[in-house]
Write a structure and sequence with these properties.
Layout (H helix, E strand, L loop, with lengths): L2 E2 L5 E2 L13 E5 L4 H12 L3 E6 L2 H14 L4 E6 L5 H14 L5 E3 L11
Parallel strand pairs: 3-4, 3-6, 4-5
Antiparallel strand pairs: 1-2
This protein binds NADP nicotinamide-adenine-dinucleotide phosphate (NAP).
Length: 118
């Protein structure tokens, strides 16, 4: 059973507690590594159709293959998206709109932290 502490933050939560996301479409940016990879993995395992949005096609393809190994039966698709390039953002948005799918969840994960110089 999941407990909450005094601030309401859940303790002992695990991804197995994600409910069914069957029929949902999600986009995870920066999904080829780190937090984004595991977010895409668990949302896929929960049944969502996951758009794996990555800025580098080669790294994205490697991640896609690994996701399919880690979550056989889940639905992942790869799209290139460089959030530092507005042309890439617009092209990605156009391709997504053309699918006609509703977007149920956007995980804006991509980013950098602890940059050494401003
Ligand atoms: N890990 C932590 O302790 C921590 C703490 C606070 C906040 N965060 C935030 O959580 C997020 C994920 O962190 P992480 O530790 O999992 O980092 P990570 O492993 O370095 O992953 C970052 C992801 O973002 C992608 N990315 C970076 N710039 C991008 C751009 N311009 N367009 C598209 N994708 C881009 C990277 O792609 P490439 O592989 O192509 O570089 C990579 O897939 C980040 O936003 C980070 O700031 C993390």
């Amino acid at each position: 059973m999941t407990e909450s502490d005094m601030t309401g933050v859940m303790k002992n939560w695990s991804a197995q507690q994600i409910g069914s996301l069957r029929g949902k479409t999600v986009i995870v940016t920066g999904a080829n590594s780190g937090i984004g990879y595991f977010t895409a993995l668990e949302l896929g395992r929960a049944g969502a159709r996951v758009v794996v949005a990555c800025r580098d096609a080669t790294r994205g393809e490697t991640a896609l293959q690994q996701l399919r190994i880690d979550a056989p039966g889940a639905t992942f698709s790869l799209e290139t998206l460089d959030l530092a390039n507005l042309g890439s953002v617009r092209a990605f948005a156009s391709r997504f709109l053309e699918t006609g799918d509703a977007l149920d969840l956007l995980v804006n994960n991509a980013g950098v932290m602890a940059i050494p110089h401003r």
